[in-house]
Design a protein that fits this description.
Number of helices: 6
Structural class: mainly alpha
Largest sheet: 2 strands, antiparallel
Strand content: under 5%
Helix content: 55-70%
Number of strands: 2
Order of helices and strands: EEHHHHHH
Strand order of the largest sheet: 1-2
Shape: globular
Length: 252
């Protein structure tokens, strides 16, 4: 489980007022993710009349997020494009960077920030907070009517209200937990397969054919699957955020 350990980059802890403010590998890879995303956007914002491949890729991502919000929230969803786009792209880049084979460079070890619940949980809480701010800002206390579906018998309202409220409050936990579990499980599986490959090579002989080769082929397949999961999880996170925003904006 060493790949999930959070450690100071320079091997030194900075304690200020009893708090550890060290610059860790998690913070470093968040900076790397943001820098990569900035370079990607910078290369695609040339505003050429005939867009090149890079600009077309950036416009494709922005158009994809914009259409997702428009279909889920409606015309007012355009206001949330900057946030949901940033959320989607950050998660996507963080997931993919954590899968790149940086380990072949001596002293470099990739770190997937989305494999930590603290990161995914904060992203989920921010999204949930925006939903609450928008909901109460637009509808006031009428926002609580979200927890009483239309046509609910009066006798059932107290029970349904409690059930719907609990379901609503669980949303940030399920949102953050889903991404955390998917990335952590995938990386553990790849680590186990990599250990089989290395151990089979060290043992030599028939173990290479029995253990190393099948594990290596399976590892390639799982890696391709993980790349797909990385994109799907970023999409699911952004999609559910847009669905929750729809509840806050289009309250009936």
């Amino acid at each position: 489980m060493h790949q999930f350990l959070i450690e100071p980059v320079l091997g030194r802890h900075w304690i200020v007022g009893g708090y550890d403010l060290s610059f860790t590998n998690s913070a470093l890879w968040m900076v790397v993710t943001l820098a990569s995303l900035w370079l990607f956007m910078l290369g695609g914002m040339k505003r050429e009349l005939v867009p090149g491949r890079w600009q077309a890729a950036v416009e494709g991502f922005t158009g994809f997020v914009s259409s997702m919000l428009t279909s889920n929230v409606g015309p007012e969803g355009k206001r949330f494009v900057p946030y949901v786009f940033s959320l989607f792209m950050f998660i996507l880049f963080a997931n993919i960077l954590g899968l790149l084979p940086f380990g072949i460079v001596p002293g470099v070890h990739p770190f997937t920030v989305t494999s930590h619940l603290t990161v995914t949980g904060v992203l989920a809480i921010i999204s949930f907070s925006i939903v609450l701010i928008v909901g109460f800002g637009r509808h006031g206390f009428h926002f609580f009517s979200l927890f009483v579906p239309h046509g609910t018998p009066p006798l059932m309202i107290p029970l349904i209200f409690v059930v719907e409220l609990m379901s609503f409050l669980v949303r940030p936990f399920s949102l953050g937990l889903r991404l955390f579990v998917a990335m952590t499980a995938g990386h553990i599986l790849l680590k186990v397969l990599a250990a089989f490959v290395v151990n089979g090579l060290n043992l030599g002989g028939g173990y290479i054919a029995i253990v190393t080769l099948p594990s290596f082929l399976l590892m390639i397949g799982i890696t391709l699957l993980e790349l797909l999961v990385a994109a799907i999880q970023a999409y699911v996170f952004a999609l559910l955020t847009s669905v929750y925003l729809n509840d806050a904006v289009n309250l009936h």
